[in-house]
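Key idea: predict the complex, not the pieces.
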Amino acid sequence: MIELIKESGIPLLPTRPPATVMDINRLGSMHQCRLSFMRSLMRKVMREKWSIKPSVIKLDDHGYGVIVYRVDTGKNIYSFVLFSNHLDDDKRNDRVIAEEWDVTMTLCIGDVTRDDIDQMRENVPKQEAGRVNSKMIVLSRGNKSSRNFDYVVSELSSGHQPDKQMLTKVGYLYRTTAVYGSGKFGMADWEKVKQTCPEFATPFSAEMFVCFMLRHFSIDQAERLASIQSPSTAVAMDDDIKRYIGIGNSTGLGMAPFLIRHPKLISRWLWVREQALARISTFGDVNRDKVNKLVKIFVKAQKHLEETEVPDEIQTKRNDVLKSELAQVIAFLPDFSCANQRWDTFVEHIGTHFSFETQEVVSSSLMELYPDLVDDLEDNLTVDEHYRLQPAMTLSELKQIIEVSYDWALEIDFSTKDANHFFWYFSEEKMEPRLGDRYNEPGEDKEMPLIIGRLVRDCYNKLMDDVVEYSPNEMIAYFLLRRPELSGIVTRIQAMSAEPMGEIRGNLADINMRPLDLLRCKLSFFGVSKFDPKSKLWVRNTMFQGAPIVSDIGKTYHDDWYFPVASGV
Amino acid sequence: MKISKNELTSLLKQAFQGCGFSAGVYETAATTVVWCKTHGFDISSALTAEKMAGFQAHTKSNVKILVDSQDELSVDFGGDSFIVSGVLMAELVYAKSIAAGLCLGKFIDCPDRKLVSKSVADFGQRGVHCTAYWRDNEDPNLINVTRTVDGNWCPEYARYLSAEPSDKRVVELDQSSLYLVCADTSAAMDEYLLSECDEIIGKPFQYWLSEGIKANERSSLMDGIDITPELWDLLGGYRDKVLVESTDESRKGAGA
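Result:
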């Protein structure tokens, strides 16, 4: 970790303990923050003044066809290519298993030729069933929010602006249903992107950019269709409304295994976030201006929550508690901060008296006060994800690592039926990751090795046996030759002993486990808002709501689009 | 056809799992094959239909340790591919060399020996001097060598013409054995090679420098990896064995 903080001159600081940070319930309560990928991407786009202009427009009067946007970052050229098609309402399906969409799109390195577009036309609309090439770095698709889209087009064509309040319920015109990168279907590997596309060399920034471009297209498309429908009366949309329009997103279980399979990366993300909080606690000056700004952020968060309507009872209750707790925090904050003069005392107080949701809003909001202490950390969100076995380690050394770093796993009782209820597997349908009931569904023999706590427990038990039967000083290499099936988990344990925040502390097979918590953690790093759970297994949310629009690039940028609201606060 | 490194890695993991490899083993096998493939080593003979069927039918390891001393590990693989347990055996050779200063691994009757190149690269990155050599499958007069190069994370690969028979140990190599040497210093490695197999010192018959091997990796990353449709289909068939049938009930497990 020593190499972590590049050129900031700020020393590494002690963070909250992993047991606090990696509690699955806390992870399931996280919110976007300044370090979220969308926020970071927008800062880069605005700072570097990217030019985004359509270079090919072949759309018919219904808006169907192909459009290419040329993106000039100042260093490189990229092309965002989108195919728009007619889709019957009854075929509109947000699930991974869908086979047709309103729009399909890709982000490519460089300019595209007519031949490139022809080749893309044969493959991009097929998504998983097509083959693309290493010039492409993201493949995605989206569906219309028909009611919203038709409403907005109708209003614009008749010369009116859409009512912002209408957009508070569903704050987007299109929603993405999958965004693929990292070499899927023949695309460029992440390593290539990292090496050759400096604009997108931070995790998921290319994927986020595609969502930003879909948002841009959705507004473009609505204005274009309004103009075609009624050339004499149509008006352009007000910029303020454009900014309030985000892009919808449906995220399902597929995202959850990622968090478990990339523990070093997750550790880095959370550790960096914790460093930001530690910096604020240590160096963040507490004064009247800062306190007033924090109060304003909390008020905005309350308003945002009031405008967030979700049918899910649990989330509604959590939002209600959050609103009420924020009111309490707003009431005591000025006196409290004057008396204490340090944010760590405030954070500690919140941590012991308020819900996880409130704690996490407070953490995210504090970061907004200190961009100078936080923003440089965004350069540290990538990591070498190689996991190397340490074969010369002794059995007793490994045993000790487990007892110290995986104490949480040893505390879980895996002997009950409920503790083993779920298993994760790949379905034959598009290889979609799914969660099965171990006792009532087939496929247990094809289980993915994702229940890390149980794997650690199993490894520990066998280690204890061998410590007795062989020698505590025996090398791990011998242990693994006897038990090769443990080589994966042993390598992971060894690697993660130096990465305190990579393991999600909970039993991911337990009957009460909520995969939603895992999705929320990752989505908060993406920077989404308005979590709208549709079940324990998938969630709708909104991306880029409140963010700058393309025509804002080049103007003064205020990086304050957190907790977006329809009306000013 | 061209595929990405990530795609090949995922496909191989699932294909090896479909063959019955356990977790950990299939991951190691996949990353080993992918490393060799992306760095320009021809691994087609390690992934034939016959080999894959053999992996699947293989339920019991044939591997037997014959000698296990402080500085030597001699293992009879009994015809088991390096893919199955070669990496773990190589790790043991490496681990022994840390304590002993130098360790020789003799892997007897071990097909797919070229895959050791990934282990050589790994050990080089950990700061150990490593040389692996084996007599060529097709031409017994050729000896293949993969070895670490000082200050370079990527090994080099060379082929030597076998000299006149001598008492040096390299002539003992049959066409199915692999020798792997790990040493903590270059001096220890040089001393070993001079005394035990001087045939692989000096100018090789053919060689690929680290830079060339790195260039292969870069090309794989930039342009994609060439794979035959037959291999794609073969691996896909084994991958399908780990997929679970979709039912109305299972769709609920995806949030439907």
